[in-house]
Design goal:
The complex is a heterodimer. Chain A is an alpha+beta fold. In chain A, helix 15 packs antiparallel against helix 22 and helix 17 (about 375-385) crosses helix 20 (about 435-440). In chain B, about 70% of the residues lie in helices and about 0% in strands. In chain B, helix 3 (about 45-70) packs parallel to helix 15 (about 345-365). Chain B is globular. Classes of the chains: A alpha+beta, B mainly alpha. The interface between A and B is large, with 45 and 51 residues.
Chain lengths: ~575, ~375
């Protein structure tokens, strides 16, 4: 092998020469700026009278599907100033005095703290006082005592005309927290900015927000503006049109008055959400304008949990509404047919455990259609055992149970579809047949959100497509075809028709439209049973799917089913509005 | 060949003192500037300086450790170290995808660790080994070395950390040139890169394009990206011949300078110590480079020659870029000034690299 070392040493010498040459150039550059032109830069530094003002962007507005306003902006004024100028002459004291003279209560400490929190650079503007009305501002500026170093800045504040009707959907904005500020370090946000904290406001923050504007001004020694050097106007945020129907939402709120629970209505084919109501609700207006810690704690610790969106984050056993999926799975897996019957004596024994049917006297001989119609538990116990837990879990996951639906709202719960693996890990116990029996009537280790149930029924209603629910009209339709047999779907749809026509859900059918669906009564370890009804209408050509869930509402047949009937009728028969019942 | 290992005491006694002292001086000048830069953030300044000192202690431990192990073993582990670096870079990339936004570090409790810094050492080691086993006299070997640099450089580029990726590029170019590649190879490569500039422009992020436009004319955007360049140049220029004195720099104190303790540390230093101070710091860097390359010429181990060429390329590129940027002569990239800027991962990686160079120096003193 030849010796390369002489070559390498030659190259190293060249490299050393290159390094020294480059350093010479750097020294030359420094000489040019620091010695030749030093005077220029010393003058520029001492005259650094550049000030920056930031204009927060106007946030996009939010509308429902008919153009009704859900979130709008109103003008208020902030009093702004530069830390550089404020620090000089007891500004907080002077301003606090002036404000109290005009009936606006602020202490000098409040002001100082607020200035300190926002201070990023002495030449960058900060907000001293917020939320001043036009009248107050005019009054203040007219006062000769008003410090010349301060100036009013018009800003937009958010209000929600629909208030508690849609607060779980719109969410609310609030002042950006330090954590959020660190997270969005792209420079688009500054302390004191408004940011979506929840709901659509948070989900579509990027769309709604717009881009902040900036202006640089030159000021004199007393901090008064001499001239504008450069401006960059703020860009307005984009408006957002939701698929929500505020009228129907209002009806849902009326129906749910006095109850805890949720109502969901969705377009069965597109996943457009028309109603998403959670009861009790809360008013989001005070939250957007700032509430005290005490008020906030009262809201968060309220035992009724108004801030929990029960429609997407509440997890409940699907109870008998699950039987539609069980029946469909059994048909698809060829474990049952309409010709196959079972005998219900009112009870069913597995090993040494006895499981009762809700009807103690029994339903006698039933087939799948009749079992759905009468919600016969014993029939589905047997179906469940035939399918076995692994196939049940497979069908759950196919229909999206156990994972979030993907709706465009933050904070959605995935639900629970726990199986043998989970039980072994959690309780160190093996899976019993009794657990499978419980599963087959939608109880046990199975929890779903009302929205997941609506999505499940949408599959039945639309002929086998799992849609992604969405609220923004820009979200687009996402549907996955589950390739289900049409004749199997027809059997289930017939069964659900029987439920309303002559079974447990008759009360859903008394609103002038044909509804098909299923009742449910979910066992509640903490109190009275939850009532459920999931259904769709019109029966022969389904358009909307709806779910009502009432916590501690006892039987689905009496409370939940008329709610679904009425709200579907409201949406399908506009001319009958107000005349229902 | 089995060598008798030196004890730590013997190792320390035979250090290249001039190199060591220049490094130490640069580090303490850095701590002082970080302290001064931080004084603008009401009281947080001493926090940065204290942390940098803490990192200095940690780096000293690493320095001694590397000295004891010796560069030869590091070279023999080169491929494994390189593979490990790739895993780390890949890990940080995956992490960056899952966490919103870009991510170029791992959180290690109190500190953040940047694999891109560690990757520089790994790359230099693997190139030193590769180019001595397969000298870049033929095109395949030349391209093989470039591929090694390309893989890790690409992982850094997509983080995205274009600045560090450029350091990887500089390391690759200098090592390949020192390893004796015929001039036509690197020249051809540079030609290709020049030709690809218009194409590459398409792939730049908007903020990167703005940085380059602003470099060409800072007044294009005097409020945004250009603001930094203008203010940094004002800081450097207003330092004058003698500077305003330690802790007297106003540009950094009033927060006219962004990131004064990292990216713009040289501007802070220049404002306070003037032209004389700046030339002094450049002299220290000059001594460092002189001693590094001297060591490379003395050693009989070809791998060590390439190794040191790579280390010097790394320090040189970041120094030139950081100082050039502070005067507005080069675009803003966010690269730290080696040994001076605040930054733990960078300091730690540099001390490992410099200890490797010292280890080479010690080996040249051995008599066989």
């Amino acid at each position: 092998m030849p010796d390369f070392r002489p070559v390498l040493n030659l190259r190293l010498k060249l490299w050393r020469a290159a390094v020294l040459l480059s350093m010479g150039i750097l020294v030359g550059g420094l000489y040019f700026f620091q010695v030749v032109h030093a005077d220029t830069y010393i003058r520029l530094a001492s005259n650094n009278r550049l000030r920056l003002i930031r204009f927060p962007p106007v946030r996009g507005e939010i509308y429902d599907r008919n153009g009704a306003l859900l979130a709008v902006n109103v003008t208020t004024f902030d009093i702004m100033g530069y830390p550089m100028d404020i620090e000089k002459n007891d500004m907080p004291e002077r301003l606090a005095e002036l404000l109290s003279a005009h009936g606006i209560p602020y202490t000098a400490e409040d002001l100082s703290r607020s200035i300190k929190r926002q201070s990023w650079a002495p030449y960058r503007v900060v907000r001293l006082v917020g939320n001043i009305t036009l009248a107050q501002m005019a009054d203040l500026v007219a006062d000769p005592e008003f410090p010349r170093e301060l100036f009013p800045l018009p800003v937009w504040r958010r209000t929600y005309p629909a208030g508690s009707l849609a607060s779980n959907i719109t969410g609310y904005v609030g002042e950006i927290s330090e954590n959020e500020l660190r997270q969005f370090s792209e420079g688009n946000y500054a302390a004191g900015d408004q940011i979506g904290k929840n709901g659509i406001e948070r989900q579509y923050e990027d769309v709604l927000r717009g881009t902040p504007g900036e202006e640089s001004v030159e000021v004199d020694a007393r901090g008064r503006k001499i001239r504008t050097i450069d401006t960059r106007p703020a860009g307005r945020g984009e408006d957002l049109h939701l698929t929500l129907d505020l009228g129907a939402q209002r009806l849902a709120a009326d129906l749910m008055k006095g109850y805890r629970g949720a109502i969901v209505v969705m377009d069965a084919h597109t996943g457009e959400v028309l109603v998403l109501y959670s009861s009790p609700s809360y008013d989001n207006n005070p939250l957007a304008w700032g509430v005290s810690l005490r008020e906030w704690n009262a809201l968060v610790k309220d035992p009724e949990k108004p801030m929990l969106d029960r429609s997407i984050s509440g997890q409940y056993p699907p109870a008998s509404t699950f039987k539609a999926l069980m029946g469909l799975a059994a048909l698809e897996e060829k474990e049952t047919t309409t010709a196959l019957t079972a005998h219900c004596s009112g009870a069913f024994t597995v090993g040494n455990r006895t499981f009762r049917c809700w009807k103690r006297s029994g339903h006698g001989t039933v087939n799948l259609l009749r079992a759905l119609q009468e919600s016969c538990d014993v029939y589905f116990y047997q179906v469940g055992l035939k399918l076995g837990i692994s196939r049940i879990l497979k069908w759950c996951s196919l229909f999206g149970l156990g994972s979030p639906t993907g709706i465009d709202l933050p904070g959605e719960s995935p639900g629970v579809t726990a199986g043998p693996d989970w039980k072994r890990a959690r309780f160190k116990e093996s899976w019993y047949q009794g657990d499978t029996v419980n599963y087959s009537i939608g109880q046990g280790f199975l929890l779903t959100t009302p929205l997941q149930i609506a999505r499940l029924y949408a599959v039945i209603a639309n002929g086998g497509k799992l849609v992604r629910p969405h609220l923004s009209s820009t979200a687009g339709v996402v549907a996955r075809n589950l390739s289900l047999e049409k004749k199997n779907l027809d059997v289930i749809r017939k069964g659900l028709d029987y439920v309303v026509r002559r079974g447990t859900g008759r009360q859903a059918g008394s609103f002038g439209i044909t509804v098909a669906g299923k009742t449910g009564t979910a066992q509640n370890a903490h109190g009275d049973d939850h009532a459920l009804f999931a259904g769709y209408a019109p029966m022969d050509n389904p358009k909307y799917v709806a779910v009502a869930l009432i916590e501690a509402g006892l039987h689905g047949s009496s409370v939940a089913s008329p709610m679904v009937g009425e709200i579907l009728s409201y949406l399908l028969v506009p001319e009958a509005r107000g005349k229902a019942q | 060949m089995e060598e008798k290992r030196l004890s730590l005491r013997e190792n320390l006694a035979s250090l290249d003192r001039l190199q060591f002292l220049s490094v130490l001086a640069l580090f303490f000048l850095g701590v002082a500037s970080i302290f001064s830069a931080g004084a603008g953030f009401d009281g947080r300044g001493s926090g940065f300086a204290a942390r940098q000192l803490l990192w200095g202690c940690l780096s000293a431990v690493a320095y001694l450790g590397v000295l004891q192990v010796g560069y030869a073993r590091f070279l023999s582990w080169a491929y494994r170290i390189y593979a490990f670096a790739l895993v780390l870079l890949f890990g940080v990339m995956v992490l960056g995808m899952t966490v919103k936004g870009s991510q170029s570090w791992f959180h290690l409790g109190f500190f953040r660790f940047q694999p891109a810094e560690f990757g520089k050492i790994a790359l230099i080691l693997v190139l030193a080994k590769h180019f001595c086993r397969y000298p870049p006299l033929t095109l395949p070997s030349f391209l093989g070395g470039l591929a090694l640099a390309g893989v890790s450089g690409w992982l850094v580029l997509v983080q995205p950390d274009a600045g560090s990726a450029m350091v990887y590029g500089a390391i690759a170019m200098v090592t390949v040139a020192v390893a004796g590649a015929p001039w036509k190879y690197p020249a051809g490569l540079i030609g290709l890169m020049m030709a690809a500039v218009p194409l590459g422009w398409q792939f730049l992020k908007e903020y990167q394009k703005m940085r380059i436009r602003v470099f060409l004319d800072p007044w294009v955007d005097p409020l945004g990206a250009g603001y930094n360049v203008i203010q940094s140049r004002i800081a450097v220029g207003s330092g004058g011949l003698l500077g305003k004195g330690f802790m007297e720099g106003l540009q950094s104190k009033l927060r006219f300078l962004p990131e004064p303790h990292t990216d713009f540390i040289f501007s802070v230093y220049c404002e306070e110590f003037g032209f004389i101070g700046a030339v002094g710091m450049l002299l220290l860097f000059g001594v460092l480079f002189w001693r590094l390359i001297e060591t490379a010429m003395r050693t009989k181990d070809s791998r060590a020659k390439v190794l040191i060429a790579g280390i010097s390329a790394w320090i040189w590129f970041q120094m030139a870029e950081s100082i050039g940027m502070s005067m507005g002569l080069l675009p803003v990239t966010g690269l730290p000034l080696p040994l001076v800027s605040y930054g733990g991962s960078s300091l730690l990686a540099l001390s490992v690299a410099l200890a490797l160079a010292q280890s080479v120096y010690i080996s040249t003193l051995k008599t066989y």
